[in-house]
Amino acid sequence: MITESPLITQLADASTPAASLRHILDLTPSELNDWVVARGWPKFRAGQLQKWLFHRRVTSFEQMSDLPKPMREQLATEFQLFAAEVESHQVASDRTEKLLLKLGNGETTECVLMREPNRVTVCISTQVGCAMGCVFCASGMLGLKRNLSPGEILEQLLRLQTLLGLDERITNIVVMGIGEPLANLPAVLQVLAAASSPEGLGIGARHITVSTVGLPARIREFAHTGKQYNLAISLHAPNNTLRDKLVPVNDKIGVEAILDAADEYFEVTGRRVTFEYVLLAQVNDEPQHAQQLAQLLRGRCAHVNLIPMNGVSLLPYHEPAAPRTQQFVAILEQAGIPASVRKRKGADIDAACGQLRLKHEKS
Ligand code: SF4
Question: Do residues 300 and 258 lie in contact, with contact meaning Cβ atoms separated by under 8 Å?
């Protein structure tokens, strides 16, 4: 069952953007400090402001009640708190929630909130569209328009946070929405710093996962942040011939270069790398593909996350039958490669990456 939440009106009202103003979430903590001091306010006001932004789930500067009224007015004159509008808010029967956010110029992006008994995971987007062109992905169908700014990415986290009950908090972040995160690495690093710092959302780096199609130089750069973020590599094929077809950007990279960079990521961070593999019926789900994948990952500290294809009506790919998926898992496990099948969340809404945006853009 899909429902439009009553919160949509409240969120939309709170988010009417004043296009010429800066996004306050684009500022780093030190830029926020500088602004406070430059306007003649004591430094501690910057700390209060941070708390309101990240911890108190407000939707306007006016609600920041322990800041002096003139300061709140200055903030509202110079900044936007939320720059996007909620175009659509879907709630699935498993309480997965998805927002389609309308940015300036009518562009849109998506973010998702997923609830499990002991965790609340949010999935965020990093670009408007995507240039990688994976053939099974709705997000790449319309190409890349631009990178999202740090503020536009952080806004997704904070908007999703406003959907939570008072007894709930975000425990995990997956950067797996629309776009290739490592193609927008400076913005992503600023967002993750805010998400993982105690003054920000306070989510431990080990609870944050960045998913990439596999850009070796950027993986190496990401390895050297000094943080233990998790890395997930969207492999989807066990050889270059097949991967070139499914992930076209692969013909300029190659599986070997990606695995070398993944090895370095593990060596530097000590974090086991996850390899994601979308299972497409009769395309990459043959037993021989599982055997090749096992061969590729043998001896590596790796985990395979199998994702049965989530139907996108415009694409000619399908989910394999359950026994076929189980056979794939069994082959990997027999070869000593840990593997799991991703549980589908929000099956009754357009929760697969880019589906809601695609539907909106097409209409
Ligand atoms: S799967 Fe990811 S990298 Fe590939 S086109 Fe979609 S959003 Fe881009």
Answer: no
